[in-house]
Write a structure and sequence with these properties.
GO molecular function: cell-cell adhesion mediator activity
Pfam family, one: fn3
Biased composition (Polar residues): 731-742
Radius of gyration: 49 Å
Number of helices: 5
Keywords: Cell adhesion, Cell membrane, Cell projection, Disulfide bond, Glycoprotein, Immunoglobulin domain, Membrane, Repeat, Signal, Transmembrane, Transmembrane helix
CATH topology of the largest domain: Immunoglobulin-like
Structural class: mainly beta
Distance between the termini: 107 Å
Organism: Clupea harengus (Atlantic herring)
């Protein structure tokens, strides 16, 4: 059984079939019956790129996947010849796809499988063909052996050092370094060209070096090949001293280098030409010689440079234009000038284009005798040649087909026949590339099929719009007709409307519309029908709603909820309190028409809602319960002249009922001796937030009739609150309800965002309209998006608050706008916002990563910034990973934790700080976008210089006698270099006066020092620091304690080793042991009282024992002082000066084998042991002696 408004998703398939008579694409429906019966030619869905370079160390995967019904079979051609996969020992096919896997682990050579591959996917309805995949193995050859003669040049002349890297696949990235693996510093005078050569606009004496080496980095194998170094000797009139001053602004004048006018090192001549393909990058280069170094400027004849796509690089010597289009053709001029002269060179740029689609052929699904056309339009420069193929063979060589006519870039099909299904290929090619597209024509002859249940029962509410669905499928497209109760010639017209997708709309369901409706679908192949039983029910309404109640504590209240509903529908009544299900207590009674609460209290206060539901509709009404104290309702208790809150307004009346406004009139209540200053109008609606009163407007206290501005599609009721200086009145009773009609949305969705969760998608999200803002039911959002540089918008309607755009390029900018639509029309469009598709891993590495200006705690890092297009996302930072590999101090272990630091500058330089001195470091760099990191750069290793050490590990002051102070320390945890010793500074301290500072120096292996005191009351302030060759490190400060009140103090470490102390402790232990033995004997004899004093007493029926098993006689001596106390002669208790408590844990101190205490000297007592031994007499040596007496 289906409810009103439940629309079957299957009903959309017939709507697709409406377009089959033109050019249309159809997917196999998910219905199992359709999947079994609908046949479809194959379609290639996944394949490897045309130019496919692979790493020889990995298995080679050549992808080919297709879909179709029946599932396709696969064949391959290699170099236009049949490729028998089964006979190739190292080649396997991944079933059920056609993907090939070539493994070289068992002796195969990857180079043996280079060539051009093409995949053919076929079933009984046609053959789909993949692109021609050119498989090549990446190569990283060595430099050719060559002997480079030393170069001798005169200072001021120009020079080019050729690189000529080996021809790798793909071509390597080149950079210049010296033998110390430091990059050759480049500037306006010295720079590397696009071909890898190193250009000197003019040579200076400081350029003399024996190790100019060109390096080639091969991306696939992560290897770097190095060319034999050039040796350059510069002859000059004046010797060059690198320590002498060097004028950066005029490096030539100080050295008397003759000035020369500019001349181009590259390109040669006055005019050159360049060809570039559409969509690629245009790179133009001008490098000039001259003294002083010429500056380069770029111009375009007859126009301006496209500034948003232009980037000047290599000190303005290189002009880069990304995403080239035909409008970038023309003449570009580079001008080189210095103070001597100016020259220019013109580069004529031609933009050609590989083929690109204007109208890509689409799949055709036709029924017998129908017509259709398939077009293939591509653009390029030169104009592409169009070639048609059928099932992988040139269409000219196939059998003639009277239903098919080829006219250039179009194939026309007329009155197609069953069995004419095939896959057609369009190949658009010119000298710069080709495009290959598959498109099938599928001739279907299927009898009609109903995609829903054969019988349905739909219940609707009277006067509501109703839809009866009849999802169907068939070819040719079936004719659909509706009948009621088996009568009539078809329902369409009046308050019926039949849609082409099979749905029948009843604009306003009335009781007479109830009955059985039959949907009949028919074509030349057959006929099928379903029946839909429609029942029209009375609406469910609350005819007597609960009213607001104010009542005193302890009284009873009743909320009414009388319901009128269709007698054939079961109803369910639920009461809510503050929008939550009501928990029924013993004081609450619910019947069919009311809710009664007895003995109310403050906890019962709140908004009560009666919610009535049937299976197809519902209604609700709310009222508020206010619990008052008794005197709150008694006006007689008030003083006649005492000002109070006003009485509630009454007699609310609605008039002037318009579409978006209504007039509200009321009678003010008594002002209670304080004039009313304001009226507050509130509203409540029962659709979105029933029972919640909201402020609508406020008005002066001298009016009682106002015109209220309303929102569309809201069922209002109003109340009024009067306000004076004392406060607000109780709300008035609610007015009658007034429902406004619907309208189109007034505002557009806000907070629109577009961002990708994957590299090939973009999720569009927005803040949906609130319920009040919707203005009508059935709100949908029209989401529109387009590429930033395109004109055509894509659109889709959705009821959700997000939409996912698939198959995008990586981090591609999009324009996005959203419009809300309801049953009454369209709202305003939102402003266009900019969104981006998802990010991918950056593909480039920061080249020439190196360091300079190495200090003890910082180092300058340098790199070549990557092309922004290779970041594949929003650039975040250049991220350096660095780790401290070892300390240069022998034997010192270090933490090799890897740390990171980000650099946001695009200048290619930064400073890395917080390094540990005198250490070996490794680091590399990656470029990071918001989600991913790119491949790592080359690893740079360096050693930080020596620094000052950290503070000593510890520094202790011990006074061994009244005349000396003994100092101890340990070496620093971080020496930061080779320690050469320690420096100790100290001076006497007497209050605020200090003595003369004295300095002592020690060798690095000395860690103690004894200072003789002039007298025992002298105090010292000490400062200790370790030293390296760089200087003194962090200072450790200590102050000696004041020993003037002590004869001799010893530290806690040495006292236990003193002979006198050991003897004393042994004697004390022996005495304690003897006393414990005597105490035990005494206790076993019954305590101090003789047995004869007890013999006449009756025995307890229960023996009382201590925890240790001895008998307890409840002696008067049980309440003895605790251990550590003794009894004086006058019977009072005093603390013992010699108690063992002062030296351990109570009297239970422990000794080591050498006689020293295990524990430190604490005054902690074992509470449990003390409480478990009720008599403390035996634990006191003095008390034990008294008991012996």
């Amino acid at each position: 059984m289906l409810k009103q408004g439940k629309r079957s998703g299957l009903a959309t398939w017939p709507l697709l079939l409406i377009f089959l008579r033109a050019v249309a694409s159809i997917e196999v429906p998910l219905d199992p019956k359709i999947q079994q019966e609908l046949k479809q030619p194959p379609t290639i869905v996944k394949q490897s790129p045309k130019d496919y370079i692979v790493d020889p160390r990995d298995s080679i995967i050549i992808e080919c996947e297709a879909k179709g019904n029946p599932p396709p079979m696969y064949e391959w051609k290699r170099n236009s010849r049949y490729f028998n996969v089964g006979k190739m020992p190292h080649v396997t096919q991944r079933k059920p796809s056609g993907t090939l896997e070539i493994s070289s682990r068992n002796g195969g050579r990857p180079e043996d499988y280079e060539g051009e591959y093409q995949c053919f996917a076929s079933n009984e309805f046609g053959i789909a063909v993949s692109n021609k995949i050119l498989l090549r193995i990446s190569k990283s050859p060595l430099w050719p052996k060559e002997v480079l003669e030393p170069l001798v040049v005169t200072e001021g002349t120009s020079l080019v050092l050729p690189c000529n890297p080996p021809p790798g696949l793909p071509p390597p990235n080149t950079f210049w370094m010296n033998s110390d693996m430091q990059t050759i510093q480049q500037d306006a005078r010295v720079s590397m060209g696009l071909n890898g050569d190193l250009y000197f606009s003019s040579v200076l004496a400081k350029d003399s070096s024996t190790d100019y080496s060109c390096n080639a980095r091969f991306v696939f194998t992560y290897t770097i090949q190095q060319k034999n170094p050039f040796s350059l000797k510069v002859q000059s009139q004046q010797p060059y001293n690198d320590s002498s001053s060097f004028n950066l602004t005029d490096p030539y004048g100080a050295r008397h280098v003759p000035e020369t006018s500019p001349s181009f090192l590259t390109p040669s001549g006055l005019v050159s030409s360049k060809m570039v393909l559409r969509g690629e990058q245009l790179l133009l280069e001008c490098i000039a010689a001259g003294v002083p170094t010429p500056s380069i400027k770029w111009f375009k004849k007859g126009g301006d440079l496209p500034m948003k796509r232009v980037k000047l690089e290599s000190f303005n010597k290189t002009l880069r234009i990304i995403n080239v289009s035909e409008e970038d053709s023309g003449d570009y001029m580079c001008m080189a000038n210095n103070k001597i002269a100016s020259i220019q060179h013109t580069i004529s740029v031609q933009v050609k284009a590989a083929p690109h689609w204007l109208d890509k052929p689409q799949n055709l699904v036709l029924a017998p005798d129908e017509n259709g056309r398939m077009t293939c339009i591509a653009h390029g420069n030169p104009k592409p040649t169009i070639q048609w193929l059928m099932n992988g063979e040139p269409i000219e060589s196939t059998l003639p087909n009277p239903s098919r006519e080829v006219e250039g870039d179009t194939i026309i099909f007329r009155r197609v026949l069953v069995g004419g299904s095939a896959v057609y290929q369009c190949n658009a090619s010119n000298e710069h590339g080709y495009l290959l597209a598959n498109a099938f024509i599928n001739i279907l002859d299927m009898k009609p099929m109903m995609l829903g249940p054969k019988t349905q029962l739909i219940k609707v509410v009277e006067n509501n719009r109703t839809f009866l669905d009849c999802p169907f499928f068939g070819a040719p497209i079936p004719t659909l007709r509706w009948f009621k109760n088996g009568l009539g010639s078809g329902l369409d017209g009046g308050h019926y409307r039949a849609y082409v997708n099979g749905t029948l709309e009843i604009k306003r369901a009335l009781p007479e519309d109830q009955g059985t409706y039959t949907c009949v679908a028919s074509n030349i192949m057959g006929k099928v029908e379903i029946q839909v039983r429609l029942e029209v029910k009375e609406p469910t309404r609350i005819v007597r709603a609960p009213e607001h109640v104010s009542s005193t504590r302890g009284s009873s209240v009743r909320f009414n909820c009388r319901i009128k509903h269709d007698p054939t529908m079961a109803i369910h009544v639920t009461w809510l309190k503050n929008d939550q299900p009501l928990s029924y207590a013993w004081r609450m009674k619910k019947d069919e028409e009311s809710l009664t609460i007895t003995n109310i209290n403050e906890g019962d206060q709140g908004t009560y809602t009666c919610l009535v539901k049937t299976e197809i509709d519902e209604d609700s009404a709310s009222a508020r319960l206010t619990v008052l104290e008794e005197e709150s309702l008694s006006p007689s208790n008030r003083s006649p002249m005492l000002a109070d809150r006003p009485e509630s307004p009454k007699d609310l009346e609605l008039s002037d009922l318009l579409v978006r406004s209504v007039r509200l009139t009321w009678v003010p209540g008594d002002d209670n001796n304080s004039p009313i200053t304001e009226f507050l109008v509130q509203f409540e609606e029962n659709r979105w937030e029933p029972g919640k009163w909201q402020n609508l407007s406020s008005h002066p206290g001298n009016v009682n009739s106002v015109l209220l501005e309303l929102s569309p599609f809201v069922n209002y009721q109003f109340r009024v609150i009067a306000i004076n200086e004392v406060g607000q009145s109780q709300p008035s009773r609610p007015s009658l309800r007034y429902q406004t009609s619907g309208a189109a949305p007034d505002i557009a969705p806000e907070d629109i965002k577009g961002m990708g969760s994957k590299k090939n998608n973009m999720e569009i999200t927005w803040k949906p309209l609130s319920d009040i803002q919707k203005n009508a039911p059935n709100i949908v959002y029209e989401v529109s998006w387009k590429k930033k540089d395109m004109e055509e918008w894509n659109s889709i309607n959705t009821t959700k608050a997000k939409h996912m755009v698939h198959d995008t390029e990586t981090y591609e900018p999009f324009h996005i706008k959203i419009q809300a639509i309801n049953d009454f029309g369209r709202g305003p469009e939102s402003a266009v916002v900019l969104g981006y598709s998802g990010e991918d891993y950056p593909s480039a590495t920061p080249a020439h990563f190196n360091v300079s200006k190495i200090d003890s705690t910082k180092v300058n890092v340098h790199w070549d910034p990557v092309d922004p297009s290779t970041v594949h996302g929003e650039f975040k930072e250049y991220r350096v990973y660095y780790s401290r590999e070892s300390s240069l101090v022998r034997g010192l272990k270090v933490n090799k934790e890897k740390k990171t630091k980000g650099f946001f500058s695009s200048s290619g330089t930064g400073v890395l700080t917080d390094l540990v001195p005198f250490s070996q470091y490794k680091m590399y760099m990656v470029v990071a976008n918001s989600r991913y990191e790119g491949p790592p750069s080359n690893t740079a290793e360096f050693k930080t210089k020596e620094g000052v050490p950290s503070a000593p590990k510890f520094f202790r002051i011990v006074q061994r006698s009244t005349h000396t102070v003994h100092l101890q320390w340990d070496k620093p945890l971080e020496p930061n270099g080779n320690l050469i010793g320690y420096t100790l500074q100290y001076y006497t301290v007497n209050g605020t006066q200090v003595g003369q500072r004295q300095v002592q120096s020690f060798l690095p292996n000395v860690t103690t020092f004894t200072l003789r005191l002039p007298d025992r009351s002298t105090r010292y302030k000490f400062y200790l620091a370790a030293r390296t060759q760089v200087g003194a490190g962090e200072v450790y400060a200590e102050e000696s304690p004041n020993f003037s009140n002590e004869a001799i103090s010893t530290d806690s470490v040495d006292i236990a080793t003193q002979g006198w102390f050991i003897g004393l402790m042994c004697a004390v232990a022996l005495i304690v042991l003897i006393l414990l033995i005597v105490c035990f004997i005494k206790r076993s004899r019954g305590g101090k009282y003789p047995v004869r004093d007890k013999k006449d007493l009756p025995l307890d029926p229960v023996d009382h024992k201590d925890q240790d098993g001895s008998f307890d006689y409840h002696s008067d001596e049980d309440n003895k002082p605790l251990q550590g106390s003794q009894t004086s002669l006058d019977g009072q208790v005093k603390e013992s000066d010699d108690s063992l408590v002062d030296y351990g844990e109570g009297g239970d101190g422990q000794f080591n084998e050498d006689g020293s205490f295990i524990g430190q000297y604490t005054v902690k007592k074992d509470k449990e042991e003390t409480e478990g031994n009720e008599s403390s007499e035996a634990t006191s040596p003095v008390n034990a002696i008294y008991s012996l007496a």
